[in-house]
């Protein structure tokens, strides 16, 4: 007897969640962003820089962390430029190369932050994100 196939996940797949993730970032909506995460999701920042923890554990830490981060930051993202989206042999995982650009409101200076996201989506929700953001670019933009 052949093994049963795994049923497809409910909800949007990784690319659909990525589009909603980017919209939440551009809107600076911690509530919309948190709504994309499973209750017990993990969002990690492997490249640390001052002001960010190593990870957020769970949807509510994502909400609280981004609320605090965006509330304290004069950086206003205006666009996300997709460099590439790499499909995985695991249908739950995509790797995203992108650059976020915007303006520092206190100086009027533009900023550009390249990054890499590794996203795992299950049942239409993020369950694990590894966010490799260029912390030096962020710090440099805030110092100008």
From TrEMBL:
Pfam families: SnoaL_2. Gene3D superfamilies: 3.10.450.50. InterPro entries: NTF2-like_dom_sf (IPR032710), SnoaL-like (IPR037401). It comes from the Bacteria. Residues 19-128 form the SnoaL-like domain. This is Nuclear transport factor 2 family protein.
């Amino acid at each position: 007897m052949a093994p049963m196939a795994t049923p497809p996940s409910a909800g949007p797949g990784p690319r659909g969640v990525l589009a909603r993730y980017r919209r939440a970032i551009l809107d600076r909506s911690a509530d919309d962003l948190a709504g994309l995460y499973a209750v017990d999701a993990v969002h990690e920042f492997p490249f640390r820089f001052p002001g960010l923890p190593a990870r957020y554990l769970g949807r509510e830490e994502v909400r609280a962390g981004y609320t605090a981060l965006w509330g304290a930051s004069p950086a206003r993202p205006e666009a996300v430029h997709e460099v590439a989206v790499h499909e995985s042999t695991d249908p739950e995982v995509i790797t995203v190369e992108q650059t976020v650009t915007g303006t520092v409101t206190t100086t009027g200076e533009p900023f550009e932050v390249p990054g890499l996201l590794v996203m795992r989506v299950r049942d239409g929700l993020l369950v694990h994100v590894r966010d490799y953001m260029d912390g030096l670019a962020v710090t440099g933009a805030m110092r100008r």
